[in-house]
Amino acid sequence: MKHLVVLISGEGSNLQALIDACQQGKIAARIAAVISHRADAYGLTRAATAGIETKTLNPVGFASREDYDRALAALIDRYPLSVIVLAGFMRILTSAFVERYAGRMLNVHPSLLPRYPGLHTHRQALANGDAEHGTSVHFVTDELDGGPVILQARVPIFAQDDEQILAQRVKTQEHAIYPLVINWLLTGRLSLRDNVAWLDGAPLPAAGYAAD
Ligand code: GRF
To answer: Least crowded by CB within 10 Å, which of 37, 63, 139, 161?
Structure first.
């Protein structure tokens, strides 16, 4: 049996999609633990409702980012682990942490990377008058939101959209593509080699699967 550890900070709608996908057999794994850096993350309630072990690791009291990430790794390593899934985890990770789990850690970012790394992606897409927006699942590397993209999903932007509506449209796509990619990694179809994502024995293009 393979195991996921999911890191969250908030709402946890992606976490819910993963819980459902595990229950439905769409992800060949169970979630060993859900870890949040905030005690008030609603995702913790979702996990507890599903009978999944939860932990909160509050950054207050840690002298440095390195210290926090060391404690986070020690906590993660208490669980059986196949893949670490970042699902709205709003902390920048240190190089040592990223290195420790290289090739075994995925993130979902709400933009069509390399467009809009960082925060407020929906706001930026609207302000720039973009006709489309989307989401990217990528391997986590040292570069913030800069690891190799595995799969993207696009959504249209309509004239009357606001940030909230657009965020929800993007999340609906995230809930569909994230379980898929996680399962590719778990089943050995996907890997990270020399900073390139490989799927089924071939390197993926810069914008991920089916981007060409
Ligand atoms: C998602 O939009 C994801 O792309 C980003 O943070 C958000 C998390 O949402 N990394 P939720 O907590 O899964 O609802």
So the answer is: 63
